[in-house]
């Protein structure tokens, strides 16, 4: 890119239009990643209730040792930038490249959008429920489609508070025309969370710019405690006249990630326009002669578990290649992925 030395230009710099972060406050920060790269989350497994027996030895039922499952969260996104501002160039450009101003611009135009885009893409791909629909969102169906999502969360007993409805600009255009939508200008509050444009069905509505929005997604409903987006490092530095440079060296680093908790994944619902991007069909699983098999589909890879955990989030998930032997009563869970599509839901088969 060129560096334009000035004859006489106005000192006001035209900055790109950039929205502030839309993910702040979206997810909980219940886990501490200080000093570690990976956090393991244990979930206790309860047991079914029994009929109480008034005679015999095990009147409450046969004792069963409580088991647990583990999900591993490993940080992966380690990003950085380095910018030099030569003292001579800055002097010949009327001092428009002040270090502080340049650093703020870099954060606003590069760092924030990149992290937003990554987090939203992760949520779209790791959601507990991903529904594909080839019918485009419109004024006539937007309310019903969103209500279908809230019903899914309600049926999964996801708490009604702390839900956020994230929408594309197109979906927002149709939603705004519905009588159920409460626009920001009608809300009796002094201030709204940045990015919030209103409320719908007790959910705050956040409109997301196209450049940060996952491809093909119409909307997402996100329960705050269904995931986390830890930021372990968010450092910026300004070095004045470092060795080898007459001027300023600006450096920055962000170390972050986004995770969905397997036990709370049903708190994230994604509606996808399949005319734009597909959703992989759930695997067809059959169990015969104590062996589980999956019907092969061109271009689709499958992962499975046999320990009762969700293969989308479990560290015990394995790649499927051939029939898997099962013991009596053992459950086989599998899901599919295909390049360019969102993952399938989970298919479950039990060896009766």
UniProtKB/TrEMBL annotation:
Q: What is this protein called?
A: Phage protein
Q: What is the lineage of its organism?
A: Bacteria, Bacillati, Bacillota, Clostridia, Christensenellales
């Amino acid at each position: 890119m060129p560096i334009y030395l000035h004859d006489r230009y106005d000192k006001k710099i035209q900055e790109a239009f950039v929205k502030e972060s839309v993910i702040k406050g979206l997810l909980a920060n219940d886990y501490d990643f200080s000093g570690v790269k990976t956090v393991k989350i244990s979930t206790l497994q309860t047991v079914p209730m029994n009929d109480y027996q008034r005679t015999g030895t095990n009147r409450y039922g046969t004792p069963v040792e409580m088991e647990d499952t583990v999900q591993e969260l490993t940080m992966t996104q380690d990003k950085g930038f380095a910018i030099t501002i030569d003292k001579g160039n800055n002097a010949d450009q009327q001092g428009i490249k002040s270090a502080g101003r340049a650093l703020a611009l870099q954060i606003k135009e590069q760092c924030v959008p990149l992290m937003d885009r990554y987090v939203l893409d992760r949520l779209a791909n790791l959601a507990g429920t991903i529904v594909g629909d080839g019918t485009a969102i419109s004024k006539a169906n937007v309310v019903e489609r969103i209500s279908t999502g809230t019903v899914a969360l309600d049926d999964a007993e996801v708490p009604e508070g702390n839900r956020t409805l994230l929408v594309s600009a197109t979906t927002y255009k149709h939603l705004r025309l519905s009588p159920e939508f409460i626009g920001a200008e009608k809300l009796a509050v002094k201030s709204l969370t940045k990015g919030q444009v209103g409320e719908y069905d007790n959910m705050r509505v956040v409109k997301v710019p196209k450049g940060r929005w996952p491809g093909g997604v119409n909307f997402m409903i996100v329960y705050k405690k269904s995931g986390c987006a830890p930021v372990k490092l968010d450092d910026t530095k300004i070095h004045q006249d470092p060795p080898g440079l007459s001027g300023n060296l600006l450096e920055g680093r962000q170390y972050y990630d986004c995770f969905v908790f397997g036990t709370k994944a049903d708190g994230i619902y994604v509606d996808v326009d399949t005319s734009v991007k597909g959703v992989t069909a759930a695997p067809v699983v059959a169990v015969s002669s104590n062996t589980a098999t999956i019907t092969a589909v061109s271009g689709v890879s499958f992962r499975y578990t046999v320990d009762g955990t969700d293969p989308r989030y479990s560290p015990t998930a394995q790649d499927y290649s051939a029939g898997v032997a099962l013991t009596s009563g053992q459950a086989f869970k599998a899901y599919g992925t295909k390049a360019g599509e969102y993952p399938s839901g989970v298919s479950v088969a039990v060896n009766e």
